[in-house]
Design goal:
Blueprint lengths: L7 E3 L2 E3 L3 E3 L16 H12 L4 E8 L19 H12 L5 E6 L10 E3 L3 E5 L2 E7 L2 H20 L4 E6 L4 H6 L16 H11 L7 E7 L5 H13 L4 E5 L18 H12 L4 E3 L6 H11 L3 E3 L2 H5 L3 H7 L13 H4 L5 H12 L1
Parallel strand pairs: 3-4, 3-13, 4-5, 5-9, 6-8, 9-10, 10-11, 11-12, 12-13
Antiparallel strand pairs: 1-2, 7-8
Helix pairs in contact: 1-2, 3-5, 6-7
Length: 355
């Protein structure tokens, strides 16, 4: 089994350890222009200095109509490239590769005219959502937007992209048969939208550019997710970052005696089914837990999200055997309100100050 400190190769890219910082949207840092701010640049530079082997930058929307928040970072127009390039340069200066996550929210978006593969209603973040069924023309437009965004990612200097295909957002909606009721070529069994997005992206990027996907492990069932993963493996995906699917429409499972979370079990089952690197995420809150996830599931990378927000140097501290600190799981994330007031961060600072 892999150790946290072991390198990993994805395509032609060698990653120095098995610690990945996954996409985490920093709300209220940008404005409706979707432009990168100095705060974004400092944030990712600090993470890179902290020793993680790989950073996957927060979700950048491929269309202004597909934003999950009106202040979400964007990659829908060329004018956003210079700001994104400042992030890649800052991270590369620290010797760390960085991917960017490409995203469209669909029915979980922030706008008024919300779209979905089929007509669908739900409540998300205490707001009723109604998604109207997309036209075929609109689907093709979104496919082109993902391809154009990937081209901008290359121009901005990213080492790869991660297509956002889980957490309830648009591509997740297409993959979930309880949400997608279409009977045309974009039905939930066809994988047609993913196939066309991959083809479109590949037409816009160099051959060695890395293309991965964040994939739901219960979409709506584990068996569905395994079918999706096997299809992606056959069609040349470079990695699978396994997480939860559409929250309202999934059936999580794990054996009764399984020592980890159901999402870790799903990631491990996907790893058994494919030949490409697989990442695992969720509640990996200590170096010991991270190593246990690698050992039990057989996956290739662990995503350390909240731990990195609490402690930008989580990876360096973990690999050196030092206390990494821990997220205290506030009812409302204080880090996102004001990182200086994050209780986990403040506790770690006090502990280190007393030593």
């Amino acid at each position: 089994m892999a150790l946290l400190s072991d390198p990993l190769k994805i395509k032609n890219l060698t990653i120095k350890n098995r610690i990945c910082v996954p996409p985490m949207v920093c709300y209220h840092w940008a404005d409706e222009s979707g432009q990168v701010t100095e705060k974004n640049i400092r944030h990712y530079q600090s993470i890179a200095r902290g020793g993680a082997g790989l950073i996957i930058q927060e979700a950048a929307c491929v269309s202004p109509d597909g934003r999950l928040s009106m202040d979400q970072l964007g990659i829908w127009r060329d004018e956003q490239i210079p700001g994104l390039k400042k992030i890649t340069q800052a991270v590369h200066d620290e010797g760390v590769p960085i991917f960017i996550q490409l995203h469209h929210a669909g029915v979980l978006g922030a706008g008024e005219d919300l779209v979905c593969p089929s007509e669908y209603d739900c409540v998300f973040r205490d707001r009723p959502r109604h998604g109207r069924a997309m036209t075929t023309e609109e689907i093709h437009q979104v496919i082109g937007q993902f391809a154009d965004a990937a081209k901008r990612a290359v121009l901005a200097g990213y080492d790869g992209i991660e297509i956002h295909g889980c957490h309830g957002y648009l591509l997740c909606q297409f993959l979930n048969r309880r949400v997608n009721q279409r009977t045309d070529e974009f039905n939930p069994d066809s994988m047609k939208i993913i196939e066309m997005i991959l083809d479109g992206i590949r037409s816009q990027v160099p051959d060695d550019f890395i293309i991965g996907i964040r994939l739901g492990v219960f979409e709506p069932t584990l068996e569905d997710a395994l079918a999706h993963a096997r299809w992606l493996d056959r069609h040349g995906i470079d990695f699978i970052d396994a997480s939860y699917g559409f929250n309202f429409e999934m059936d999580p499972v794990k054996p009764e005696d399984y020592p980890l979370l159901d999402v870790h079990y799903g990631a491990g089952e996907i790893k058994k089914a494919v030949h490409v690197p697989v990442f695992a995420v969720n509640s990996i809150d200590s170096p010991q837990k991270a190593q246990e996830v690698l050992d039990v599931t057989g996956v290739d990378m662990v995503d350390i999200g909240r731990g990195t927000l609490v402690n930008y140097s989580w990876a360096n501290d973990a690999l050196a055997g030092r206390d990494t600190g821990k997220c205290l799981h506030c009812p409302q994330c204080m880090w996102r309100i004001d990182w200086k007031k994050c209780p986990g961060r403040r506790l770690l600072e006090r502990q280190r100050g007393s030593n």
